[in-house]
Amino acid sequence: MARILVIEDNRENLDLMLYLLGAFGHTAYAAGDGDEGLSRAAAEKPDLIVCDVHLPVLDGYAVVSRLKADPALRAIPVIAVTALAMVGDRELVLRAGFDGYLAKPINPETLATQIESWL
Predict the structure, then answer these.
(1) Which of 6, 23, 85, 86 is at 20 to 30 A from 53, Cα to Cα?
(2) Can you give the CATH number for the domain in which 41 is found?
(3) pLDDT tens-digit series, residues 11-23
(4) How many distinct structural domains can be found in the chain?
(5) How many other β-carbons are positioned within 10 Å of the β-carbon of residue 89?
(6) At CB < 8 A and 24+ separation, what contacts does 115-119 make?
């Protein structure tokens, strides 16, 4: 199974994703802000990163920009998780460098299938 870093500042969302990923056999790591997320990504070299867009310290756009600029980390798929649901928001996060998009609220019944499509 995969090693997945979840960068999320909302404790309930973070706990839900960590629980669901663990239940499907993945090893999940947590980071509560963008700066911590970059540090964990460099240390853990996960197979996938799930990143909230609205984060303290560094937002998700800054996180994905720095990840994609780092030769050691740029190949790791980074999935945006966001409540942004306006027309064009999905395209905006993909243009910013994210490899995929998950809308909040997280759907426990489909999260594992969605995650596995990026692994």
Answers:
(1) 23
(2) 3.40.50.2300
(3) 999 999 999 999 9
(4) 1
(5) 16
(6) 115/2, 115/4, 115/21, 115/24, 115/26, 115/48, 115/50, 115/79, 118/48, 118/77, 118/79, 119/2, 119/47, 119/48, 119/77
Mean per-residue pLDDT pooled into runs of 10, the chain (119 residues): 96 94 95 97 97 93 97 96 72 90 87 88
Using alpha carbons only, give the angle 2, 53, 57 rounded to the nearest 5 degrees.
100
Residue matched to tokens 């839900």? 16
Residue 91, pLDDT score: 81
Q: Would you say the pTM of this structure is higher than 0.90?
A: yes
C-alpha of 108 from chain center: 16
Q: Which structural domain, as residue segments, surrounds residue 63?
A: 3-116
CA 49 to chain centre: 4
The residue to which tokens 């990504």 are assigned: 41
Residue 60 to residue 35: CA distance in whole angstroms: 10
> Residue 85's pLDDT is what?
61
